[in-house]
Automatic annotation (TrEMBL):
An annotated GO cellular component: Golgi membrane
Spans traversing the lipid bilayer: 80-98
Membrane topology type: Single-pass type II membrane protein
UniProt organism field: Rousettus aegyptiacus (Egyptian fruit bat)
Job of this protein: It also transfers sulfate to a unique non-reducing terminal sequence, GalNAc(4SO4)-GlcA(2SO4)-GalNAc(6SO4), to yield a highly sulfated structure similar to the structure found in thrombomodulin chondroitin sulfate.
The name this protein goes by in its record: Sulfotransferase
Top enzyme category: transferase
Amino acid sequence: MRHCVNCCIQLSTDDTHKQQIGCQGGPPHCRQECPTCKGENKIVFRVDGKQMNLLAVLQVRAEGGESWGGLLRFKKGKRCSLVFGLIIMTLVMASYILSGAHQELLISSPFHYGAFPSNPSLTDSETPSDMKEHHHQPSVNNISFIKDYPSIKLIINSIAARIEFTTRQLPDIEDLKKQELHMFSVIPTKFLPNSKSPCWYEEFAGRNTTDPYVSNSYALYSRRFRSTFDALRKAFWGHLSHAGGRHFRLRCLPRFYIIGQPKCGTTDLYDRLRLHPEVKFSAIKEPHWWTRKRFGIVRLRDGLRDRYPVEDYLDLFDLAAHQIHQALQASSAKEHSKMNRIIIGEASASTMWDNNAWTFFYDNSTDGEPPFLTQDFIHAFQPDAKLIVMLRDPVERLYSDYLYFASSNKSADDFHEKVTEALQLFENCMLDYSLRACVYNNSLNNAMPVRLQVGLYAVYLLDWLTVFSKEQFLVLRLEDHASNVSYTMHRVFQFLSLGPLSEKQMALMTKSPASNARRPEDRNLGPMWPVTQRILQDFYRPFNAKLAQVLADKAFAWRKT
């Protein structure tokens, strides 16, 4: 027995369209031609004032009387109504779930889903030229995200209402010593007066067969650093000073630090600056010693390892120390002057912001704020240190950070959802704690799916300015560096009191391509959604405004014109 029924149904929420049912193959009273579909076998209905067309063909097969006996006892009209009611309800629910938006759908029979076209309009922050760079069709989810903007804006407003930039209480030097007894026993309080970098001589008790780097944690835990230490071993014994049967090695700390921020061009600045003959960096570009390794952190999610002692960190500057030692021992005044211009640098992009380890090692304060920060210890040994900061629009920094560190399923949709989740978590913290407590909250930072806190430049800079003077900082913008590399490098040379370069040296430094550029596969993902960009601009706006005020430079507000 075979029943084949084709129906056209129109359901409307307004008074313009009345319920219409036309069933081909049914009883005479049901055989009405629908004026909307004109006999084209579509299910047409309207939701929220928008017409939605659905085409479905139902074929009901009944093998034997018992299988459909109960159903056949209904009148044909009732069976038609029941079956089509269930079909319509199922299709509507499926369409809404899969589309993510109340837009027109055409689902062809039998249950074949067509494309979902969408044309999101420009947001206030996007220009037509920006749209030319969008090589990807907008996702259906972007429309849904735009509808979510008012609720997310409430979260941002809640955060903004609680922002308060307070001055932190500085720890006493004796309290610092109690926290790092070994560090204070190794690093002296005074350095050699005839060296531009902070250096001192330390006795070496080993023999000429002793490997000075046998226990260095950087060499033990990372294979890629072993070749570096092989070179250090070969040069070590030739650069010792000998007196009274004792051996002395020159130890040095950096004269300057590139302290941040990640995904802001610090690698490019490092690669160019190290081409200057007077600049010598650590053997490893980013030791992360002040913020992570001295606490035994490689990756925080992997737990704590043995703490890297300060000697392991000092080993990284031995190549530079060898050259400075050679200058100090030079017999001619010319050679002494040439080599003594060397300054040492270090470029860990975590130095400015990463204090996640404090909860594991320092007594917790009652207000949730860390009692000690990285800059407290650097200042204790090097009150005259020079500090370079490279920043960029925090909105773009966050997306670049996401593309670089996310491992899988990267997309504009995924980024938007992670931003929304991070904002909700940050707001929850701000409801109970101060801004500083939330920024340095290790649990919160680990819970947020994107590193929203890294872009709060004003919070970190203000805390650094509590121990260092403003004159000790050179704060640069990646946008300016990208547009005029030569000008940026001249500013750095002047800040570090470096000598001039020849035209050939300067050309080599400025004409080389940018380092650590976005990977091709990440570029293919396209930009973030305009609505995501707008949300992040709203969130970062008060922090950018404070930064521009502190630096007396409106460019650091990153306002789009």
